[in-house]
Specification:
The chain has 479 residues and is of the alpha/beta class. 36% of the residues lie in helices and 20% in strands.
Length: 479
């Protein structure tokens, strides 16, 4: 499949983590990589490594016929001029995941691996980590890779190599990877996110559904859109999971126990109390990880061992501190309303710290559903007024405080980061003042972070740092 690239030029579109991971595999199969990017700094870095580079602007109106293939970074939209030109000229455009799939199928780095693919609007990383933990417990050589941080190609090149890949894939990556046929793949849930990139919810869901093209497809039955994908699944077999009593062919929960009725008549896999993070979202992720691993015949006892061993990663419903009977939880990874919903519903009384860039997502339904759990809200970021307006309509009795960075926070990067931390410190202090014993101060922004912070991890660290400056007297001082 890859012989056509030997001795040919291949355009690597985007000099990010995925772009860098392409270079050695391309060289290993005898191709000549050429890097393009819109940033002068990125091109300079590539050139320093001895790579041929070409600015995007120089390629947009140029004959691209010298290239046998264009491999795009996942963030590049299909309407990017270079990609449009390539398609117009009949040059294939692959994503880095598509290329990795064919590298694996060609056995460039040893026997082909089993791919367990995880996608969904929320819960991907937790499910991927749980899947990897179960595989480790079973003694299966595995690695978590893809959107979780480690490029798939880097995982394939490891020596000794893994037998199984737990692959987290975003909708962008799946859009550019039509050939991937995983041993098992799961769509956890589908909610409004990245609609500006895909052009609408239907296209976004269709990209997610590409996880359901392999031997076993798994869908979250408690999510209406994901459940509907079961009827369209291209997998040879499709099973579902739910946080409730499972029917035949499903995994679910009975009397506080995770139960498999899909891959056996009935097998207890774990106790709900074993699951981290606690709450419905964590249990759903555990069921998904269990389904993927059971699909490749991992025994129930190893599913339990792996789930018991797994601990939630940073900024994903992570406990920060308890102070005067108030718990502080960092779920900065809740970057859309669907994720924030799961986070809020895990706690009975919440002072909600939220805000940022909504990216066109709506918060009306979220606030209407969780209003009875909110004892207060502190809002930050560019779309704070949108959330405040929705709270006023659907939760008028909930006190709301908006904390502003000021317009000059957007002028200079270092100034912006300093002000972001200062705003978060003020927001945390305000939230602590709204809280009383038994409440949870929860950072679950329902929005992206890039209007103020470097990324969601910066936002989470800023929250945790501010929480650790509080004293007992800061709790409930506004009541």
């Amino acid at each position: 499949m890859l012989e056509f690239l030997r001795g040919r030029d291949v355009l690597v579109a985007g000099w990010g983590v995925s772009g860098r991971s392409l270079i050695e595999p391309l060289r290993d199969i005898g191709a000549h990589p050429v890097v393009t990017d819109g940033g002068a700094k990125a091109l300079a870095e590539a050139a320093e490594l001895g790579l041929e580079v070409a600015p995007c602007a120089d390629l947009e109106n140029t004959d691209l016929s010298r290239f046998a293939l264009v491999i795009t970074s996942p963030g590049w939209r299909p309407d990017s001029p270079v990609l449009v030109s390539a398609v117009t000229e009949g040059i294939p455009v692959w994503g880095d995941v598509e290329f990795a799939w064919w590298v694996d199928q060609a056995r460039i780095y040893g026997p082909a691996r089993k791919w367990l693919v995880i996608t969904g609007t929320n819960g991907k990383t937790t499910t991927t980590q749980m899947t990897h933990s179960i595989l480790r417990a079973a003694g299966i050589a595995s690695v978590a890779c893809g959107n979780i941080g480690l490029p798939i190609l880097d995982a394939l090149r490891r020596n000794p190599g893994p037998q199984v890949l737990a692959v987290e894939l975003s909708s962008f990556q799946l859009h550019w990877a039509p050939s991937v046929r995983p041993e098992a793949g799961v769509v956890l849930n589908v909610a409004e996110d990245h609609l500006d990139w895909h052009g609408g919810l239907d296209a976004y869901a269709a990209a997610k559904a590409r996880a359901l093209y392999g031997r076993v497809g798994v869908v979250g039955l408690d999510d209406a859109v994901a459940a509907a994908l079961a009827r369209k699944s291209k997998a040879r077999r499709t099973v579902g999971f739910r946080i409730g009593v499972p029917a035949d062919g499903e995994l679910g929960v009975v009397d506080g126990k995770l139960l498999d009725r899909a891959f056996t008549k009935a097998a207890i896999l774990a106790e709900v109390g074993d699951i981290s993070p606690p709450g419905p979202a964590g249990v759903a992720d555990a069921l998904a990880a269990a389904a993927l691993t059971r699909a490749i015949d991992v025994a129930p006892q190893f599913v339990r061992e792996g789930l018991v061993e797994h601990k939630v990663g940073p900024h994903r419903a992570a406990f920060v501190r308890e102070l005067a009977g108030v718990n502080f939880i960092d779920d900065s990874k809740a970057t859309n309303p669907h994720a924030a919903r799961s986070s809020i519903l895990a706690h009975p009384q919440v002072v909600w710290v939220a805000g940022g860039q909504l990216k066109g997502a709506h918060v009306e339904d979220l606030i209407e559903e969780v209003a009875d759990r909110l004892v207060g809200a502190v809002l930050i970021g560019s779309d704070a007024p949108v959330i405040a307006s929705a709270l006023a309509r659907h939760a008028p009795d909930v006190p709301v405080i908006e904390v502003w960075a000021g317009d000059d926070a957007l002028m200079d990067e270092s100034v912006r980061m300093d002000k972001a931390d200062a705003v978060m410190a003020q927001a945390v202090r305000a939230a602590a003042g709204m809280a009383n014993r038994g409440d949870t101060v929860l950072l679950a922004p329902a929005a992206a972070s890039l209007d103020m912070f470097a990324d969601y991890t910066h936002r989470g660290r800023s929250f945790a740092d501010a929480v650790h400056t509080l004293e007992d007297g800061d709790i409930g001082r506004q009541l």
